[in-house]
Design brief:
- This protein is mainly β.
- It contains no helices and ten strands.
- The two termini are 14 Å apart.
Length: 105
């Protein structure tokens, strides 16, 4: 089980987008994730006529390392660390370490 999952709201801790918040769109690999509106770069793209892709300069979200983001805590309106806990019914859930609130039920 991962501490950060697809669809979570995260806050960037370091880099050019420090302090910005966005939703996790996908995972590039085990340690990198793509966040909506974060680490956006302009790339030059060649046209591919067989696929119908136009060429030009496109903006693209690039992956960011999972250690550079923290889960957003809506209770405190700040980024927070996440831990794991077993509930009485045997389910493993994530919880915010600052407030001990369960993230997902």
């Amino acid at each position: 089980m991962r501490k950060i999952k697809k669809g979570d709201q995260v806050v960037v801790l370091t880099g050019k987008d420090k302090g910005k918040r966005g939703a996790v769109l996908s995972f590039a690999d085990a340690e990198r994730l793509i966040v909506e509106g974060i680490n956006v770069v302009r790339k030059h793209q060649k046209p591919i006529p067989t696929r119908g892709v136009n060429g030009g300069i496109v903006e693209k979200s690039m992956p960011i390392h999972v250690s550079n983001v923290a889960l957003y805590n809506p209770g405190t309106h700040k980024p927070d660390r996440v831990g794991f806990r077993l509930l009485a019914d045997g389910r493993k859930v994530r919880f915010f370490k600052a407030t001990n609130e369960v993230v997902d039920l």
